[in-house]
Amino acid sequence: MTTLIDYRLDGEVALIGLARPPVNALGQPLREALAEAFELAIADSQVHAVVIYGQGRAFSAGADISEFGSPAAFAAPDLASLLSRLAASPKPLIAAIAGTALGGGLETALACGYRISSAQATLGLPETRIGLLPGAGGTQRLPRLIGAVAALEIILSGEPVSAAEALALGLIDRLVPDGEDLLAAATELARNLVAESAPAQRAWRYSDPARGLPTAFFDDYVAARARRWKGQLAPVLALEAVKAACAGSLEEGLASEQLLFKQVESSAQSAALRHQFFAQREALKVCGVDKNTARRPVNRVAVIGAGTMGGGIAMNFANAGIPVTLLELKGEALDRGLAHIRKQYDSSVKRGKLTPLQLEVRMSLITGTLEYADIAQVDLVIEAVFESLSIKQNVFRTLDEVCKTGAILATNTSTLDVDLIAAVTRRPHDVIGLHFFSPANVMKLLEVVRGRETSPQVLATTLDLARQIGKTAVVSGVCFGFIGNRMLEPYAREAHRLVLEGATPAQVDGVLTELGLAMGVLSMYDLAGIDVGYLVRESRREAIAHDASYFKLADELYAQGRHGQKTGRGFYRYEGRDRVEDYEVVACAEVLASELGITRRVISNEEIHDRCLFMLINEGVQLLDEGIAERSGDIDLVWINGYGFPAWRGGPMHYAEQLGLGRVLAGIERYREQLGEYGRMWFRPVPLLQRLVAAGQTRIQRL
Ligand code: 3HC
Ligand code: NAI
């Protein structure tokens, strides 16, 4: 027997232990080993019942995700057939679940006649999160076990349920309390089943999973989620599979599930989401940092500046139970900041997301102060004052004076040079950039900016902390705007310039939202504030002076007091919550275009797509070449988690690979020709992109 299975006999019970660390992913070798062990147990006349369990931290995390997109995914024995074989076992099978039973792991448990679980276990079907659907009987057996409504919730949310919830739903038969031996309990259950001559398979509790539901149930279900699912294949097809479970026999349902599964498995969307899954894990593997790198304890945090970002940043720590001190210059600003935080929590209470008690506990973890002496003993300080190098440097001089040795000093700057900030301290190795995104308590992304002298300890500690506060951390080197905002520049530049050339803001944004972006870039500027963009430009007029065209319109909007949503007017007009096209902006673009000698014309959606996206991709490739981003997957994570790029397109780098690097390069070269002086100025394919195409590479990587 292979080392992937630990096969033992305990009297009349065969114990099959899945032993493929770290998470017992059911790749072909484990599937084959499990099939072999199962047949051995069935053939052995001494064996009257079989327990399947997982060694290590998981029962099983499901199919081996890395096999999808290759023939290995369905190589014999394929999971669906294997589980059908298990489900037809002549002897009782008991799944003993500890740790996680996810996807194909839970489907394995569903194929067993009986399920028993430790109290700490979690069970779920997260396949739709990676663009798949449960494809080894999950969409058929789960509705028959717990009913269509509960099954849909588990399948379409992708959220795992706790063992206690699973017991209440009837998903498991018994819960083994903490401290009791799961395997011993499962073996005892097996013996009892044998003693009682219990059937290997039981009748389904919900033989007609949709019984009692209104006829329009599935249609209404889809209609209620149409917006959320826009453009996405997996949830729609997963629902189809559950519908099939409600319409015919198990065999027919399993056949439908297989067809639907193969459709999603071969889709570009699933490839993109699987890419994201692995990118998230890769992003945590940072050069110079490993599990042996010492971490510093972070038990108390301080945030400097209680404005838009400071307040949100403080909430992250309070939400994770970490006390945080908020320091401001003036009492009024502090009061305003604290009141704003309370208001945010209040609205969570109103939406039922938080209890009034939780609100008070969180507020009690946030202390305001005007005195640096009060933060002398904290383990981490995050500065979030105005975006001005001199102001930030002054703050860091003070922090250097007052903070204890070993404290981590972080800046939330979005554009400034972290090394220049670190340089004013006597401890640049303790300085790091922690770039949160607005609203900081909501957005998942945290760009961790590694300065020239940032120590591995500081980096490792902040990466762990990011995970603790529920952020997706991506490490960036130091440059203007880091990964995200630096790429935003060329992307936004094209959007602005296209409006001068003849597109409307709504047309530009429409192309981007059609692609799946959460928001068009011009709407995003309206949301963030036209004034904010203006101030960033003010700080670097010299650097952008060689082209006076593209930012003219935004400068003009700023001058007219059209600062975006906050003033009710920007690239659009706002009527309540509605965004409305505004002819005044078009008129303004016409005047400016004529002043700049730009001939306005009809712009195609394709041109908008190509110019915005290709320039975004071009800059990303350059960031990789410069080493600002360690991997192209890191860039994708930044754009998915910080800029609303659709995860099911995999991020801009993965999207470029799907489009074809040659097409991107040719597009850039075409616009370089077509757009005259402007084209020659900006449409410059970066060397790495040229090298990749010349070498026939299809993946974006350093060369
Ligand atoms: N396939 C392949 N590799 C997997 C995997 C899987 N299903 N699940 C985890 N891994 C790998 C990770 O890539 C990582 O590898 P690395 O160390 O080389 O980076 C390692 O296992 C550990 O994973 P995590 O770092 O994520 O460990 P955590 O302890 O933080 O999380 C987990 C564990 C909750 C199990 C998490 O890994 C997870 O959510 N896994 C994916 C679960 C999933 O989506 N299952 C469905 C698979 S599709 C399926 O089953 C189809 C079926 O219906 C036919
Ligand atoms: P803000 O203007 O809302 O808040 C800044 C706060 O800092 C104000 O309350 C001000 O009183 C306080 N402050 C100024 N100088 C101070 C000092 N010396 N000591 C203590 N407090 C001081 O600004 P916002 O938007 O919160 O930005 C803060 C930082 O976060 C900037 O560096 C900005 O670039 C960055 N950032 C902003 C994002 C955004 O979307 N607003 C996104 C990501 C980063």
UniProtKB/TrEMBL annotation:
CDD domains: crotonase-like. The keyword Oxidoreductase applies. InterPro entries: 3-OHacyl-CoA_DH_NAD-bd, 3HC_DH_C, 6-PGluconate_DH-like_C_sf, ClpP/crotonase-like_dom_sf, Enoyl-CoA_hydra/iso, NAD(P)-bd_dom_sf. Its main location: other. One of its GO terms (molecular function) is isomerase activity. Residues 481-574, 609-697 form the 3-hydroxyacyl-CoA dehydrogenase C-terminal domain. It comes from the Bacteria. Keywords: Fatty acid metabolism, Isomerase, Lipid degradation, Lipid metabolism, Lyase, Multifunctional enzyme, NAD, Oxidoreductase, Peroxisome. Signal peptide: none annotated. It catalyses: a (3S)-3-hydroxyacyl-CoA + NAD(+) = a 3-oxoacyl-CoA + NADH + H(+). Residues 301-476 form the 3-hydroxyacyl-CoA dehydrogenase NAD binding domain. Pathway: Lipid metabolism; fatty acid beta-oxidation. It is found in: Peroxisome. One of its GO terms (biological process) is fatty acid beta-oxidation. The keyword Lipid metabolism applies. This is 3-hydroxyacyl-CoA dehydrogenase.
